[in-house]
From TrEMBL:
Domain of life: Bacteria
SUPFAM superfamilies assigned: alpha/beta-Hydrolases
The protein's name in its UniProt record: Uncharacterized protein
Native source species: Candidatus Phycosocius bacilliformis
Length: 374
């Protein structure tokens, strides 16, 4: 077995989200404007746009990090959690990204994109991200970086090699497998098994990754894969096929349309694994009554936020340039962060905050958010 990692890269201008009115928006670290960070002397938010030599403030003491004391949590106490992450996600993403690869016992090379906070304070749950078909994990830096900055270790599984035989299954991967998220389930589970290898990128703080708390997310066909691994499926099929019992919560973003669209049901028993499906109102699935499924309607024009995530065709189908939708993406990151705070970190107040998103007017969005429960 062989593991390789690149050197951790600090946040660079390539990872910046451009807002509609300003080139990069206010530089923020978990909701704090740059001048506030300087005034308070809080370090650990390496803003690549300023260069390594321009890091703000002094780094926290080793004793504080050993205790898991996060000064940013104290500074943001009393603030609305959605607003905090939303504002932070419109600026420079305070996260590090690096590539990771691991050879399986059968010789297949599995690749992933890792994202984690610039400064690791607390124990971090693991979030596995499944990209859309033919998209690499690096195409989702804006999304996975936003989640990582909220205190998560994120692993975006690269699906580029899932074109031939899959582990544990005979025969070739089919178009139908990709459309329903069935392709690459075993590879994704293998990488979850090997999270200890991926966590070594953190050096002496590798033990800060909490493998007992696992969430999953995905986009397009990857959204279906995330739902399948969490035990969700369309009525009439086997919802429990491919389910991974370690997954506690699933966030699915713009799941691709399937020919057999119907109500989503869980094969996990009871109400099912906690799941939130986000996308345009017209494309959201319906959950079985009484299940743990929530849906969030986003005011967006494209499924890839104008090219900020994924690999959209140049100019879209119409051949016209599409506006970048940085604000809707920031709202999506904030909603996902709150959802995982509830499902993985067991923060009870986040459930209330999430449910209160229904009808919430967010600055920069054309319409209020709409949240529904099955």
């Amino acid at each position: 077995m062989r593991a390789t990692t690149d050197l951790p890269a600090t946040t660079s201008s390539d990872n910046q989200i451009q807002t509609a009115n300003k080139p990069f928006g206010p530089l923020r670290c978990h909701g704090l404007a740059r001048r506030e960070v300087i005034a308070l002397g809080v370090g650990g938010c390496a803003l690549g746009a300023l260069g390594p030599s321009m890091a703000l403030g002094a780094a926290p003491s080793a004793r504080s990090e050993e205790r898991g004391l996060n000064p940013l949590s104290w500074l943001n106490r009393g603030r609305d959690s959605f607003e905090t992450v939303y504002e932070a996600s419109t600026g420079v993403v305070a996260a590090r990204m690096t590539d990771f690869s691991l050879s399986t016992p059968t010789g297949m090379m599995c690749r992933a994109r890792l994202a984690y906070p610039v400064t690791v304070f607390d124990r971090m749950p693991l979030i596995v991200f499944c990209p859309d078909q033919e998209c690499s994990g690096a195409m989702y830096d804006a999304f996975i970086g936003g989640l990582a900055a909220s205190g998560y270790f994120v692993m975006a599984v690269d699906p580029m090699l899932q074109q031939s035989n899959t582990m544990g299954r005979s025969g070739a991967t089919t178009v139908a497998d990709h459309a329903t998220g069935q392709a690459g389930l075993a590879e994704t589970q293998f990488l979850i098994d090997q999270i200890g290898e991926a966590a070594k990128v953190l050096g002496p703080r590798a033990n800060r990754v909490d493998a007992s708390r696992v969430g999953i997310s995905g986009h397009g066909t990857g959204a279906w894969k995330a739902l399948h691994l969490a035990g969700w499926g369309v009525e009439g099929g086997r919802a429990d096929q491919g389910r991974d019992g370690r997954i506690m919560a699933a966030f699915a973003l713009f799941p691709s349309t399937t020919p057999s669209a119907g109500r989503l049901r869980s094969g996990a028993g009871d109400q099912g694994t906690l799941a939130l499906v986000a996308g345009a109102a017209s494309g959201l699935p319906i959950g079985a009554p009484g299940s743990n499924l929530l849906t969030l309607a986003l005011p967006v024009q494209t499924t890839h936020f104008g090219g900020l995530i994924g690999c959209p065709a140049p100019g879209g189908r119409s051949g016209k340039s599409q506006p970048r939708e940085a604000r809707p993406l920031a709202a999506t990151i904030a909603a996902a962060s709150i959802f995982f705070d509830w499902g993985l970190k067991r923060k009870g107040d986040r459930k209330r905050t999430l449910l209160e998103l229904n009808g919430r007017v967010v600055e920069g969005l054309s319409q209020p958010l709409t949240l529904n429960r099955a």
